[in-house]
Amino acid sequence: MEYLLLIYHSEAGWGKVSPGDEAAIYREYGQLREELSGKGKFLGGSQLMPTTMATTVRVRDGKRVVTDGPFAETKEQLGGYFLVNATDLDEAIAIAARIPSARNGTIEVRPLAVRGQARQA
Amino acid sequence: MDFEKLHREESGRILATLIRLLGDFDLAEEMLQEAYAIALQKWPSDGTPANPRAWLISTARHKAIDRLRRDQRFERKSEEIAKTADIAARPEGDREEEMFADDRLRLIFTCCHPSLPVEARVALTLRTVCGITTEEISRAFLVPLATMAQRLVRAKGKIREAGIPYRVPLPEELRDRLDGVLLVVYLIFNEGYLASSGDALIRRELCAEAIRLGRVLCDLLPKQTEAQALLGLMLLQDSRRDARVSAEGELVLLEEQDRNLWHGEQIQEGTELVESALRRGAAGAYALQASIAALHANARTAKEADWPQIAALYDALLRTHASPVIEVNRAVAVAMARSLEEGLALLDELEKREELEEFHLLPAARADLLRRLGRMGEAANAYRRALSLATNDIERRFLRRRLAELEKLRDSRS
Fold first, then answer.
1. B85 confidence band (pLDDT: 50, 70, 90)
2. Which helix (H) or strand (E) segment is B37 a member of?
3. Selection from B300, B153, B176 nearest residue B226 by Cα
């Protein structure tokens, strides 16, 4: 099954991380990606630009409404994602637990819907 | 052949194996019902098969294959199931027991998966592992039948769609996952033991089911001492069931209970389990609570209980599992172990804490200590405060009774 691991963290907290720590965290991310890729479990993923770079788009009554900022103001912000291939939820959870940001942020594990499947849930 | 008995005792196990073979909770449940229906027709004339369990599983499995073959969408799935040779469904002798045990454990861990909401875990475990009907569960939890049914549908939907596996967690995950399972078992027990209203018969059954589940876990995971401690704790608490509510349905406090009504054989088994768990290194929340329960259960009177030891155990609990109930219980133990004043001082400290403002057990405990100290006016006020916060009917009746006693005493003096 494919799972999207949404990585939420505090942007304010991330801003205060020292350069040395930051490099160590990126290294850890890189190692995890490499290990997962080697097993064919890593399907994609990236860090995202901060929410100050976000734009929200809606179309209402045919009219386009474009605003600044993210969809929701929350304590933790979506900062990146992994798309992984896992045998089951437990394996996806085990991968999520190894994402460095899990230690101070939150990882949301969401199975991808196969066409038509999401409606009945 | 006692059909009812077979249904009651075997359904959980058979279902556990069918879910593994068919890979689907609903299909397994439906096919098992069909297999039972066929058995009900055939067995009286053909005679009961030598191994009714294996017969039911094999019949349900064939029914499932037929059903799926009729529906083209499931062609592949039916072939998959047909391929898992009959051997997987009908091993012989010891292997059979082993297979059932493994399937049972798989089912328990799947129903108690942490990605399911807690109330869904409880409902699903009762429904699938224990074989209790949805109707009975909804009555036990005072939830409308439709709500309970919906809860089960959603939980099964999530197991299927989110890919919750049907397997026993890996050794490195087992400890964490077992904690979640034990929590569900204890919630089921407490629902039966503490619930204020609802059908007494069903509540009794919940306690019995929780204890049965506790036994299953101890059998299947003999090295897990916390499971042992939990079973001990439940047995010790349950041993008081006939003494803690009077014939009139009134709550009777531990110290006022008729200890002759306690069930001695349960106390003995519970105590042995706790002692064995402690010897083997158990030191978690269930082990500590069970130790406290064992000290109470083995004292001849409330006064004779080893209160200093009980207070020390609450100290230990507080360090790892702080909660308002434990804070209050610890203060009461200190009052009994050292002096009423010392216990009262601890409760007064707790009253200053904002998060305990709405917690009815705190003024209730204060009221009791004040009453013992002869400070009747203050005690009455504390009972009133507790009464304004308590929501459980049995507890409210108890508090009202205590308050009335105090008021009568005051009137007779004036």
1. low
2. helix B25-46
3. B176
User: Where do the domains of chain B lie?
Assistant: 1-90, 94-221
Nearest CA-CA distance, residue A89 and chain B, Å:
5
Determine contact: A2 vs chain B, CB below 8 A: no
Of A89-93, B19-23, B88-92, B274-278, the one with minimum mean pLDDT is B88-92
Region B156-184: what's the mean pLDDT? 91
pLDDT of residue A9: 96
Q: Write down all domains in chain A, each with its CATH number in brackets.
A: 2-114 (3.30.70.1060)
Give me the residue from B157, B163, B173 closest to A88, CB to CB: B163
SS3 B151: helix
pLDDT at B196 > cutoff 60: no
Window from B57-66, B107-116, B167-176, B307-316 with minimum mean pLDDT: B167-176
Burial class (CB in 10 A: 0-12, 13-18, 19+), B375: middle
> Which one of A84, A85, A90, A120 would you mutate to disrupt binding with B, by most B Cβ within 10 Å of its Cβ?
A90
Interface residue A88 vs chain B (CB under 8 A): yes
Q: Would you state the pLDDT for residue B10?
A: 82
Other C-beta atoms closer than 10 Å to the C-beta of B14 total 24
Q: Give strand pairing partners of A44.
A: A83
B342: which residues sit within 8 A by CB, 6+ positions away?
Answer: B334, B335
**CB contacts < 8 Å between A and B, how many?**
32
| Phi then psi dihedrals of residue B47, to 5 deg | 90, 150
Q: Does A54 touch chain B (CB under 8 A)?
A: no
Q: How many CA atoms lie within 13 A of B411 on its CB side?
A: 6
- Residues from chain B contacting residue A120 (CB–CB below 8 Å): 157
Give the HSE-up count for residue B263: Cα atoms under 13 Å, Cβ half-sphere: 14
Taking residue B383's Cβ as centre, other Cβ atoms within 10 Å add up to 27
For the domain made up of B1-90, the CATH class stated in words is: mainly alpha
More confident residue, B371 or B72: B371
B95 has a pLDDT exceeding 80: no
Q: Is the pLDDT of residue B76 over 90?
A: no
Which one, of A4, A27, A14, lies nearest residue A104 by Cα?
A14
A120 and chain B in contact, CB less than 8 A: yes
Q: Does B172 touch chain A (CB under 8 A)?
A: no
Query: CA-to-CA distance for A37 and A48, rounded, in angstroms?
Result: 20
Distance separating alpha carbons of residues B284 and B182, to the nearest angstrom: 12
Q: Interface pTM (ipTM) of the complex?
A: 0.87
Measured in angstroms, the CA of A49 and the nearest CA of chain B are apart by: 29
